[in-house]
Write a structure and sequence with these properties.
The chain is an all-alpha fold. The protein has a single domain, classed as Growth Hormone, Chain: A (Up-down Bundle). Helices cover 77% and strands 0% of the residues. The chain has 7 helices and no strands. Helix 1 runs parallel beside helix 6, helix 1 runs antiparallel to helix 7 and helix 3 runs antiparallel to helix 7.
Length: 212
């Protein structure tokens, strides 16, 4: 009779990353994080001004940002607690969170009440938690533990670009359109770009598994 070892599958050898695939992956990741940097920092910049323009007091604007930060800390802590259960699926978790944030910003574009702004900040803060909690670990998933340093460098640089350009671009959109509706929709579009880019990275990784 054949022994037990003859029934074992050989170790799966994944094909090496080509230079072109590395460049493409880093480019996609740069676009994703640049959009995420734009969308992450922009609410903190525009919300106080938005509320004051709607006729609310400055103290209300301060409270709204406090809710954003407090719920964000709760979301980050929750994501950290369940981190072991989503290990290996952090990109998928970011995909789900970004989808919720996209919907949230589309709704916010057509909301003007103070209650709606509080809800917006609570939802945004909570679903940005998984992104912040997995800020470092997600780089390990993109290329199966390879090129982590260059992926992290790309992330840090791209986030800075998005955070720098975002407020200026949002102000320009506000001046041209005369409303904040287009600004919130631009945030939603950036989260949408992040979703598309992350989805492409996940598909690329799955395709590599299939080729192996």
């Amino acid at each position: 009779m054949p022994n037990e070892k003859s029934f074992r599958s050989p170790n799966i050898q994944k094909p090496p990353w080509s230079v072109r695939s590395k460049v493409v992956i880093h480019g996609i990741w740069a676009i994703a994080i640049c959009c995420k940097g734009f969308a992450y920092f922009l609410p903190m910049v525009i919300l106080p001004k938005h509320l004051i323009d709607l006729g609310y007091k400055e103290v209300d604007a301060v409270k709204v940002i406090s809710v954003f930060g407090t719920v964000g800390a709760i979301g980050q802590a929750f994501a950290s607690l369940v981190g072991d259960y989503v290990k290996g699926y952090i990109m998928v978790a970011n995909l789900v969170a970004a989808t919720m944030l996209t919907v949230n910003n589309i709704i916010a574009a057509y909301s003007t009440s103070l209650t709606a702004v509080y809800v917006y900040c609570a939802v945004s803060g909570f679903f940005l938690g998984p992104y912040l909690a997995g800020y470092y670990a997600v780089n390990n998933e993109i290329m199966d533990g390879e090129n982590i340093y260059t992926l992290f460098l790309t992330m840090r640089l791209s986030k800075g670009v998005g955070a720098t350009v975002g407020p200026y671009l949002a102000g320009h959109i506000r001046d041209v359109t005369g409303s904040y509706q287009a600004v919130f929709l631009s945030i939603a579009s950036c989260f949408g770009m992040f979703i598309l880019a992350t989805f492409l990275l996940i598909c690329n990784k799955k395709w590599r598994y299939l080729k192996s």
